[in-house]
Amino acid sequence: MICLGIEGTAHTIGVGIVDQDCKVLANVMKMIDGSKGGIHPREAANHHAENIVPLMHRALEQAELSYEDIELVAFSQGPGLGPCLRTAATAARALSLSLGADLVGVNHCVAHLEIGRKITDCKDPTLLYASGGNTQVIAYSGGRYRVFGETLDIGIGNMIDKFGRSAGMPFPAGPHLEGFAKKGNRLLELPYSVKGMDVAFSGILTAALQLHRKKARLEDLCYSLQETCFAMLVEVTERAMAHVEKNEVLLGGGVVQNKRLQEMVRIMSEERGASMHVPPGPLCVDNGAMIAWTAIVMHDAGIATPIAESAVKQRFRTDEVDLPWMK
Ligand code: ATP
Ligand code: FE2
Known about the structure:
Elements: E1 2-7, E2 12-19, E3 24-31, H1 41-63, E4 72-78, H2 82-99, E5 102-107, H3 108-120, E6 126-130, E7 135-141, E8 144-150, H4 156-166, H5 174-182, E9 194-195, E10 198-199, H6 202-213, H7 218-244, E11 248-252, H8 259-272, E12 275-277, H9 281-284, H10 288-300
Parallel strand pairs: 1-4, 4-5, 6-11, 11-12
Antiparallel strand pairs: 1-2, 2-3, 6-7, 7-8, 9-10
C-alpha cells in the first residue's frame, strides 16, 4: 500500500509518501514566512494552493514513483485554520477522484501520535505534543486518545515566537531562544501557570516582555522562560502518566526539538522507570508523512472517508476519533 498524505492545518503545507511498513519515501514541505506576525488564514491558504501541486510532483520524484502508484490519498481534516484545511482537502479530493483511490481524512493530533508510536517503537505512550499552535498531553484511555491537559490560551511555540519577535530574533524563534538560554544562568521570576492539568502561557509572555523592556539580560530571560515553561509541561505530563499508569513518554511537535526540554523529560522518565521516545525532527513538525501513515493504519482497520463526509473540521477533537486499530 502506497499512501500520499497532505498536511495543511496551519502555516505548513506538506506532502508525504509512505508505504505499508512506514518507510518514508518522501516528506517535503513549505512553510509561510511567519516573521511579520501571526498567520493570516487566507494568505496561508493562498500559499498552500500555490505550493501543493509542485510539492506533490517533488514528493513523487523523490519517491521515484508516478501518480498511478498511489493507492490511498490522505489529508489533515482538522483541527486547524478553515481556509488552510479546505485547500489541502480540495487537493486530496481531486487527487483521490482522478486516481480512483480511497480517501482518508486524518486528525492532525492523532497523526503526531501514530507516526511517533511507529517510528520510535513505543506501544502505549503518553504524548507530550508541544508545537506552535498546540500544547497537549494525550494518552490512550477507555478506547480513545484523551486529552489529559492542554494550554488554556496560546500554544507554547506561539509564545516563544511572540517573545522572540519582540526580542529581535528571526522566525521561528525556538532555536534562537535555545541558543541564548544555554548562556543564561540566573533564574528570573516568571509566573508558573499550571491549573489542574492545564497550562497557560500568555501571562508568562507578558511578564517576560516586561522584563525585556526593563533590560533584563536576554540570556537569563531565555533561560528562565525555558526552565519555567518546560517545568510546567513536565509536571502535567508526569501527572498524566501516573494517572493512566503508563511507562512510555512520546514527544511530538516542533518545540520538543529543544534539547533542554528533552533532558527534563528524560530525567522525569528515568525517575519513574519510564522510557522517553523522540521521533526525528522532520517527523516531529507538521508533515505529510504522518498524515499518510495514520491513513494507512486507519484504512487497514476498515476506515475510508467518502467525499460526502470529507468536510474539514476546524475544531476536530482528539477524543472524537474512533481507534479500532488499538483494540
Ligand atoms: P501546530 O502543530 O500547532 O499546527 P506549528 O505548525 O506551528 O503548530 P511545528 O511546526 O510543530 O508547529 O513547530 C513550530 C514551533 O516549534 C515554532 O513555534 C518554533 O519556534 C518551535 N521550535 C522549533 N525549534 C525549537 C527549539 N529548539 N526550542 C523551542 N521551540 C522550538
Ligand atoms: Fe502539529
